[in-house]
Amino acid sequence: MFLHVERLTKRFGGLLAVNDVTFSVEQGKINAIIGPNGAGKSTFFNLISGLYRPTSGTITFKGRDITRLPANERAKLGIARTFQTTHLFEQATVIDNVIIGHRLRTSSNLFDAILRTKRHRREEQACKEKAMEVLEFVGLTGVADRIVANLSQEQKKRVAFALALATDPELVLLDEPAAGINPDETEGLEELIVKMVKGGLTVCLIEHKMSMIMKIADRIMVLNYGEKIAEGTPEEVRNNEAVIQAYLGGSAIA
Amino acid sequence: MAIFEKRRLWLAVLAALALAFPLLVTNGYYLHMMTISFIWMIAVYGLNLFAGYTGYLSLAHAGFFAIGAYTLGILTVKAGVPFWLAFVSACLLTTLIGALVGLVALRTKEHFFAIYTLCVGYIIYLVIDKWDGLTGGVRGFIGIPAPADIGPLSFQTPVAQYYLLLFFLAAVVFIMYRLVYSLTGRTYIAIRNSEELALTLGISTMKNKLASFVLSVFFTSLAGALYASFIRFLGPDIAYVSVMFDFLTYLLVGGIGTLAGPVVGTLLVTFLSQQLQFLQDYRMLIFGPVLTLLIIFYPHGIAGGFIRFKAKREEARRLKLEANRTVAELAASRQGRSERHVKEG
Q: Could you tell me if A203 and A219 are in contact, meaning their C-beta atoms sit under 8 angstroms apart?
């Protein structure tokens, strides 16, 4: 099993943000998580990427229990993510932003930097090459030297993708990649996500744009009030009674 | 490349000016002022590394400055340790204390870190002020020797001391320069930018923050030890909050998170405050509003403002170039079309 989450629960004081969710990410597929606002999707991502510790439950990645592993160690194992707000360094150039993405695969330290050792020069070169490689993959080679603040929202999202890809991941978690993007550009991002999966990556994404999800997702999990209410192919989820009620506002899910 | 060459040229001019300063300005007072600014600059570089590049505002740095200074004083005067050995020990001991403080302090973030370190700084001040037996308390600590000779090099004259401090400043700037443009420096900047993003990119934020903090304390303790051997008298005031805010003012005016900031800010503020000395404490009436305006309109200080101005101009030029190209292409295609029309007609 690739990534498996078993009975995961996260409690913030009296609020059950994620409640007893069991879920598997299938390798080489586009796995989507949907749900109304406040359903616990982002919390779920934060649990998988390691920014939050679960209250109970386990997370295994490629057969290894990573429940207690800090976020940076999980990244080294091959779990990358993007954020809803891209978190980029807006005043720096695109390439300067992306170079740091490969840092986790390097080992030069403070002294290497000051003495500018061979190892440092080699690793710096490797990071630059990696950055150019992923920028080409996301189609941003032309703006590599531009300041991020001057890019369009869609381009910024692509930079965030590139940054995640520079970590050499196996699983990429995308938190609302199409938020704040117009329909034409959304199509471009869809193509990019499909391209990532074709290139051998596994994608897990949160998204509100149903048309996009229904088009590209292989499997969908639906969260509502922190609980999993449905799971299956887009077709199955579309016709699921509980899902329709959750979205259209049924008074109670009987 | 042209920009790089230009920067080299500027650096060479600045270095030449710094080297020639004692020859150009024979006034002993100005030489003294310049030498002391170098000490502040080194301390401010320390603060800049952590506050400017790593994004954590430490308000304990005046305390570390004082620990460096007092350790040198105590080791040379009370323990009779040879000067340079005491000098190195002072820096290392302060750095060690810094590491211990960092281990605890870095468990807090943002404002809480600033408040925590403010308290640490004040505790250091209190210890120095109250521990009469060791530090001389409010009476101060006197008789610290000037830097001992190294072989044929003697540091007894003001000019020699000027060059000694210039050497240390150059070393610190060099290390900072190497660091900022390295993978390690980029790592620090990534942490400043977003700690969450850095974590999910596989960066151990705690380890990197601690390393940055320790190096930053090292620079500041170096400045402290140099201060002790240059002024040769110490009072607990050097650990006080006002010194901390002097450092911060230099950094903010010059440009936080820039390489030139500490030099620009320290020179400008010390020079201005010398010129306004006739106003006594009323100069704060001018400084206060000027500083406030600067923070509002130039949050990245003079150096930062300059860098951004250049970046904007570059971007405008690029856009104009692109627009011109598009217009030219349009015109060319239109011309092609009309020529075809003529032929067909």
A: no
Query: Is the confidence at residue A251, as pLDDT, over 70?
Result: no
Q: What is the pLDDT of residues A106-119, one digit of tens each?
A: 999 999 999 999 99
Contact in structure between B39 and B250 (CB atoms under 8 Å): no
Sign, CA torsion A150/A151/A153/A159: negative
Domain around B173: 22-239
Which residues of chain B, if any, have pLDDT below 70? 1-4, 337-345
The ipTM (two decimal places) reads 0.91
Read off the pTM: 0.90
Interface test with B, best of A47, A87, A107, A147 (most B CBs within 10 A): A87
Cα separation, A132 vs A55, whole angstroms: 40
pLDDT tens by residue, A38-55: 889 999 999 999 999 999
- Residue of B13, B20, B36, B315 whose CA lies nearest to B158: B36
Strand blocks (E) in A106-181: 171-175
Chain B hits for A83, CB-CB cut-off 8 Å, are 196-197
Minimal-distance CA residue of chain A relative to B173: A114
The C-alpha of B324 sits at a distance from chain A's nearest C-alpha, in angstroms, of 18
Query: Residue A178 pLDDT > 50, yes or no?
Result: yes
Output the pLDDT for position B38: 95
B182 with A116: Cβ contact below 8 A: yes
- Looking at CA atoms only, how far is residue A237 from chain B in angstroms? 31
Nearest to A72 among B178, B182, B203 (CB): B203
Beta strands A227-232; B141-142: pairing state: unpaired
A175 closest CA partner among A191, A187, A164, A188: A164
How big is the CA angle at B12 (ends B8 and B15), to the nearest 5 degrees? 135
Looking at the domain A1-78+169-254, which fold is it?
Rossmann fold (3.40.50)
| B303 and B264 Cβ atoms separated by less than 8 Å | yes
- Whether residue B244 lies inside any domain: the answer is no
**pLDDT score recorded for residue B149:** 85
Residue of A75, A89, A96 with shortest CB distance to B200:
A75
In a domain, B300, yes or no: no
Whether B77 contacts chain A with CB within 8 A: no
B143 located within any domain: yes
Angle CA(B247)–CA(B248)–CA(B250) in degrees, nearest 5? 65
Domain boundaries along the sequence of chain A: 1-78+169-254, 88-168
